[in-house]
User: What shape does this take?
Amino acid sequence: MEFWIIGVVNKRRVKYWVQTVKNLKHPIKIFAYQEFIESSLVKVDNQVTIRIESPSEDFETDRFLLKQGIKQARVSKSDIDQLKFDKGIIRYSSQWYKGWLLTLNQIQEKVNAIKNIKFMNSPNAIALMFDKLNCQKHLSNNSIRVPENYGQIESYDHLQTLVMKHKVGRLFIKPFYGSSASGVMAYQTNSSGRESIVSSIELVTSESSNRLYNNLKIRRYNNKQDIKSIINLMAENRIYCEAWIPKKSVNGMVSDIRVLVINNKACHFVLRKSKSPITNTHLGNVKADINDAIVNWGQNLVDKIKNIAEDAAKTFPDSFYCGVDIAVSNANKAYILEVNAFGDLLLDNYHEGLNTYEMELKEWQNKYHIIYNLR
Amino acid sequence: MIQEKIKTYNGKEIIRYEQGMSIDSNLGYIIYLDYDEGNDSTITNHLKDIIDNNHVDNLNTLIIGCWAEPFEDSCQNIIDFMIDKKDYFQKLEAFFCGDMESEECEISWIIQANYEGYLACFPNLKHFGVRGGTELQLGVINHTNLKSLVLEAGGLSKEVVNSVMTANLPELETLHLWLGTDEYGGNSEINQFHKLLFGTQFPHLKHLGLMDCDYVDEIALTLKDAVILDRIETLDLSMGTLSDDGAQELFFNDNLKKLKHLNLRYHFLSDECMHKLKAKFGQLVNLVDQGEVDEYDGEIYRYVEVAE
Assistant: This one.
């Protein structure tokens, strides 16, 4: 068996997988997205496994995907060439997603005619997981418990209409596309008109324009004008809202859980603890392992969480691994918050002695009966 | 942010009351609703059950947690229910209303109630506490047995502080006020505390907490020559925006040495200043949780520990 990986060449996600595959002495080829799409591939000699990696963390890849999404243009080709790297800025994410979708389709088309190629996670599965609103609908249609979804928000005024219509005062607002906490907002309001947003979004106002950045710091906005600006700017790139599930605490911190499901089995487990409603780990929050959860919540609840993660993963039959984010309420009900196609970048986390990539490879080999010799 | 529920109160371990449960007088109970519990369940229904099942005589320690939508609806109906059924709750020794975690409802969003007349209905009450300052009113307070009064808020109003400062509570031993910040309705003023600090109010007071306060430096200054330091054991100025200015005042205040404990946890002191206080007060001062100031456009910001 031969492995190919399509991703951001030279970035850590690609490197981790390449190293894991090389450790087992399998041949591996590395492609950039554009390179793969433009390659003159017609047939392969051996069985080939393709892993598509996350396009995140790379400005040149962003540029490429924005150009791919040009038909949905918010920004033109020459303007894209003129774009300057601006760390953390939130812009053009729906055009970016269209470009990513087209790229995934092109990858699929490229291999359609060729036998002997398998995707670990298919382009379709990745596309669905990336589209958070549709992904939540898909889970709900498959009887997986998700927070009540109130749909797309067109604007700040539209948000007010939704709040009135559904009589709901606490919401999580999320971008359709995006990963981890990027652009996620915990929004509160009540009928006296008070409002607040807690988010990693930083609003930068100037005379000419307002801009939004993703920031490592969690900020709170209480001012209506700021909140209006943020929602309206975010809505340009499509956002939706869902019920805020009050999350069960662990050791006096808010927590949620990432379960990496591989081959339909719940494997790696991360308990993420935070002092704010935004629990994603890259924002300086505390990571704890499964034992912390077992000690605090008991084995039964942890098993229940694993089960719902596996149930969620099973609704994506052509995805071999995915990261499932789960919130547990005080009544011990588990809700799926998100499913991440690239949710396996969990460092220093081991299941049965294997890191996430080693476990994926082992399970993949088991599934396809490759002789292996791991560790 | 508050992210854990009260574990013990009135010396009793707190467990959650669930429908039909019998009440053990050796335990305390919290009644709260879950987000996903369904709409037909209410706190007052639970209280009614306890009465109907003849368990209320064993109920001495009661905590009210999250009601259906504390950010939208006041808990006035719960307070009024208890006043209405006061004859049933005569064994009550400890009552706290609003024990919820920030995920359920943040402290400044909790819509509280008017407690005018509440305390008078329960003469055996020894401990009374409230979380949340929004719409909180206490009115005239007159109670001959109350030993502890705890008001936790992101901002306590001038009126509420006035109710406390004019209260007749001859047995009061513990007074904790989270004064909070003006952004969340805290508009109390230093001069409201003069009578307490320089007079004889609350003759049995042992533990005074003026906490979570954004003018704690002023309190530190005012404490100079305050006679209350002769009769209390604990002074708690934790959770506030204490800076080196306030700490300097505390450093020169020799009366503080008479205390058994000076709690300054969560502060914005320099290392040097902490060192000086430690050298002077030794074991009696708590200086953990040194905060970092926020700087923005050349301005320095210090935030109280619990506000939102």
